[in-house]
Amino acid sequence: MRHPTFALALAASLAVPFAATADPTISLFADVSGGVTDTPGSPAAFGLGDFTLFATSQIGEHFDTLGEVLFEVGPTGFNFDVERVQLRYSLNDRLRIGAGRFYSHVGYYNVAFQHAAYLETTVRTPLAIEDEDNGGTIPVHSLGVFAEGFLPLSHSARLAYALDVTNGRPAEPGGLTDVVGALSAGKAANLQLSIQLPNLGLRFGGNALYGRIPPSTVPATAHGWMGELIAGLFVAYTHAPVELFAEQYVLWHDTHGTGGQTSVILSGFAHLALRFGVVRPYIRGDYRRFDPTYIDPYYRRGGAGGDNLDLMGTTGVALDLAEGVVLKLEYEHRFQGLLSGANTVTVQVAWRF
Predict the structure, then answer these.
(1) Residue 335: partners with Cβ closer than 8 Å, 6 or more residues away
(2) Domain total in the chain
(3) What distance lies between CA 200 and its chain's CA centroid?
(4) What pLDDT is recorded for position 20?
């Protein structure tokens, strides 16, 4: 016998008189950086970061919405980019469903931090979860529907879940997930499960994403339908004064119709920061390794003798100058072999208003 509990609860919530929509909460974020590097052909320079508009609003008792818009600096000026726009219905803490463009439920960092330098301890986002249009290999944005919630396990522990059903990757790397909704495009599904101990500030879990990438007809990167599987694990500990994140991803690309060749990409990072009043020293290590045997059919990297490894070490300090203003000094080393590499020092001021 079917239990109509959810249907009755949903009908009851929609039957009540409409509640007034709360005034939206709007926040703006900006940052300016200056850096010097010993990379040949890269002079010392100042740079204007993304200008971010972030708005949220409660609509009645059960609906909420948010929008996040970036004005990104490009070679000829600012480019307009909608990072997120979503509507969510909350039945209770156990079930919330939403639709729109949202951050994929992969790892901890991608969902916990908006795209604003002020909200991140470091100057740059971890290599493993860079934006797709900046060379990232994990689909950090999704367009579709999602369900999420918490299930209590004890008085101090709960199981968190999230399920995404979305459009998939475009045929060519560097672009975002399909925002037009073409019926011929590939689709993807992602499930994340984690254990959370809120009183301790600890959460750990993983996700599995499977999608299909449509064929590419561009001669340099031509491929047929491609299967993509991404498995990830993460742990996050955020209990003052400690901020600790570690994430690991394994990505498989299977080119259908070419003998079952499978390419594997590994990526991950570990981040540690400590707070002493207004001062936060931090350190982070990042890596990404393309398959040393096969050239990845999507990103066209890897293979024997190829450029297979990205390895970075970062350390710095963030100083809270005032409520809403942070100053960061960061040193980054990009390894090029064990004893050589490129060094960059960056000073960044980021603020919220």
Answers:
(1) 309, 311, 312, 313, 341
(2) 1
(3) 24
(4) 57
β partners of residue 334: 312, 342
Query: Rounded to an integer, what distance in angstroms lies between the CA atom of residue 252 and that of residue 276?
Result: 41
- Rounded Cα–Cα distance for residues 1 and 8 (Å): 15
Would residue 339 count as lying in a domain?
yes
Contact yes or no for 84/67 (Cβ under 8 A) = yes
Count of C-beta atoms within a 10 Å radius of residue 106? 28
Q: Does 13 map to a domain? A: no
In sequence order, what DSSP letters do the residues of 47-110 get, joined into one string? EE--EEEEEEEEETTTEEEEEEEEEEEETTEEEEEEEEEEEEEEEETTEEEEEEEEE---TTHH
Residue type, 155: H
Report whether 107 contacts 61 (CB < 8 A).
no
> For the chain, which residues score pLDDT lower than 70?
1-22, 175-185, 256-260, 337-339
309: its two tokens: 């490894």
| Nearest residue to 235 (alpha-carbon basis) of 284, 208, 270, 209 | 270
Structure tokens at 213: 């990438």
Q: Could you tell me if residue 224 is inside a domain?
A: yes
DSSP line for 102-132: EE---TTHHHHS-S-GGGSSSSS--GGG--G
**pLDDT tens digit sequence for 54-91:** 999 999 999 999 999 999 887 777 788 889 999 999 99
CATH number at residue 62: 2.40.160.10
Please give the single-letter amino acid code of residue 106.
Answer: V
Whole-model pTM: value is 0.87
Look at residue 15 and tell me if it is in a domain.
no
What count of Cα atoms within 13 Å lies in the side-chain half-sphere of residue 1?
3
From residue 305, alpha-carbon distances to 115, 221, 334 in Å are 36, 19, 19
The span from the CA of 100 to the CA of 142, in Å, is 8
127, two tokens:
């290599």
pLDDT tens digits along 186-209:
899 999 999 999 999 999 999 999
The whole domain housing 114 covers: 21-352
User: What's the confidence (pLDDT) of residue 11?
Assistant: 45
